[in-house]
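Expect sequence, tokenised fold; for instance:
***
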Amino acid sequence: MNVNLDSLKLDLGGLDDDSIEGLGREQYRIACIDSNGRGIRVTHDGEDVEFWESRFDHAFFTGTNKEVLEKRRIARIKWICEVIGGRAPNSDCWEVSENLRKRFYRVVGKGYIIWLEKYQAECWTFSTAYIAPIAHLHKQTRGNGAKRIWKYGQKNAP
């Protein structure tokens, strides 16, 4: 089943920063957290992804001290599990090796990228998701042994 990402985008119009942050935390908990500040969701290829409530600030704030609420990230919280689950048209998934194994999902037409990291052999961990220029999305596919492992519409998609 594919999803229309635009229909999942949160409407933040008329909300102040405190309200946006509160809505973001609530929607992150609903979409990604099960209990005890932790949740497990599944990727397009059936691998577990661990989400931590404590990861919210890292994923949805920017700035040297994570003091700037990134509203565009908040508006797209509901996209995360749909994209990694393989239900978003025009998405793909890449693996790279840096200090540790990483995976990223892109929706190039939306300028959107999601990063997962593999700390434990059996589970991915959600790191962040953000809007970026298309050139940045393409740059991620070069170097660090980047290899596309899946593209929306392939047989191994759910």
Helices lie at 5-8, 17-32, 56-60, 71-75, 79-84, 134-139. The mean pLDDT is 93. Residues 17-32 form the longest helix (16 residues).
